[in-house]
Amino acid sequence: MSHISVLLHETVDALLANRDTGIYIDGTFGRGGHTRLLLSKLGPDAQVYGFDKDPQALAVAHQLEQEDSRFHIIHASFADIQTELNQRGIEHVDGIMADLGVSSPQLDQAERGFSFMQDGPLDMRMDNSQGQTAAEWLLHIEEEALANIIYQYGEERYSRRIARAIKQAGLLETTAQLAELVKAAHPKWEKHKHPATRTFQAIRIAINKELEDIEQFLPQAVDLLKPEARLAVISFHSLEDRLIKQFIQKESTIAEDSGWGMPQQQIDTRRLKKISRIRASEEEVKANPRSRSAWLRVAERLV
C-alpha cells in the first residue's frame, strides 16, 4: 500500500490560513504528501524545510529538492528543530506542521520490522542507520522496565505477563516470533485487534523516543512561530494526542498568580490560541482506513 497523507487538505489549508508566502516547516516529511501540496499553494519566494530521520524518506526528499528549489530537507528529528533552523539563520517561521507516528511504507515493508502482519527482522527503528534494533533493545532491558513501558506506551493491561514471556524467551530475531510469543502470553484478546498490537506500539514508541521527541518539539515550535503563524499537528493515538492537547491548553490559558495575603491576580502568559480540532471525514476513512484514529489540532501564535 502506498502512503496516503492523512487530513491532507485540512492540514495545509489550516497552516496557510490564506497566505501564499513565507517560511514553512514540515517536521515529519515522510513521503512528502503534505509538503508537495504546501509547495503547490505557495509563491516563488516561499521556502519549505522538511525534517526526517528515515533514510528512505530522505531519498524521496532529496529528489524533491532537485525538482523544487524552494524545498530543503534536514536529516534530523523535529526534536532538534530550533537548533537546526538557527544554524541555517532562521529564527522565526510562518507555520509548522507535523504528522506523527509511522508511515505506511514503514509499516508495509517487512524488512523495517514495524508490523506483526508480515514477518521481518525485529528492527522498528525510524532511523535504521543508527541505534539499537528492537531485538537488541529487548535483549538488554530489564523485565520490570519493559513491563512498565508496555503498560504506559501500549496501555496494555497484561504488560507484566507479556514482559515476563519476552524476557524468558531470550533473543527474538523476527516480528513473527515476537507476535506469536505475545499472542500465547495474552489471556484476553480484543475483538478485531491482534493481541500484539499494543505491545508492538509500546516497543516502537520507546526505541524511537517518540513521546520524548514530541515533548521537546512543541515548545521549540512555539518559540519559532511568528505572531499569527500556525502550528498544525496530526496524531494517531491517545498518548500523542494527550500531549498535544495539554500543551496547547497550557499555552492558551491565562495563568493565575495568588501572592501571599494579596488578591488573586491573573497574568496573561498565553502564547497560543486554539483554532481547531479536526477528524478525518467518512469519505477519507473509507478510502484510507488508517485515517480513522487521526486527529488534527491547530493553534495560532499570539505574540
Succession of helices and strands: HEHEHEHEHHHHHHHEHEEEHE
CATH class of the largest domain: Alpha Beta
For the termini, the CA-CA separation is 43 Å
How many separate domains? Answer: 2
CATH topology of the largest domain: Rossmann fold
Trace the largest sheet across and list its strands: 3-2-1-4-5-9-8
How many DSSP helices? 13
CATH architecture classification of the largest domain: 3-Layer(aba) Sandwich
* Helix/sheet category: alpha/beta
- Whole-number mean pLDDT: 93
Largest β sheet strand count, sense and barrel closure: 7 strands, mixed
**Low-pLDDT regions:** none
EC number: 2.1.1.199
Function: Specifically methylates the N4 position of cytidine in position 1402 (C1402) of 16S rRNA.
Family: Belongs to the methyltransferase superfamily. RsmH family.
Catalytic activity: cytidine(1402) in 16S rRNA + S-adenosyl-L-methionine = N(4)-methylcytidine(1402) in 16S rRNA + S-adenosyl-L-homocysteine + H(+)
